[in-house]
Amino acid sequence: MTALVENPMPIIFFGIIAEAVLGVVLLRTGRGAILWVMLGVLVVVLAGVGLEWLVVTQAEEVEATLDNVAAALMANDLDRVFQHVAPEAQPSRSRARYAMGLFKLTGVKINNLKIKINRLTSPPSAKARFIGIISAEDPRRTEKGCFPTKPDRSVSRWSSVWRTTAGWLPSTQKAIHASSCRRNRSRHRHR
Length: 191
Known about the structure:
With 191 residues, the chain is α+β, with helices and mostly antiparallel strands. It contains seven helices and four strands, in the order H-H-H-H-H-H-E-E-H-E-E.
């Protein structure tokens, strides 16, 4: 049942197929009553899309929290980041404090997000897997008189466990696979 309120595409797909079939029937028979049926299908599809928009599922709440974390990271606002991280997640908090003290983030992107809700735990928990792409600059480079360089980029596959009490907060997280590339590396080796 949650599949209907997670994604509006099935109801839209149903509406397009139903309207196409009814359109063919209307052309073949020429009966005006088919227009009323087509209008009814349109109303059902619009109601389904409206319901999907109004109902916020637990997975959508986790996704919204993750988006808020990404926005706080982009703003380089450590206090806002900590609003979205569980207090007992000390390793995550320490890692964020350390990294944000060293670098100025210039880009945060989340791709391939997959969220699984576990309603059997008390309180309910969720596991989010995603690819995080973070671009950052080292402000110490420009302070020391170095030429500004293009930002470095880190691509990581993350897995995080979320818990809910007054809202969804990540309680643990780990990088499954991380790689970084420096855009400003010279392509030529000096001998």
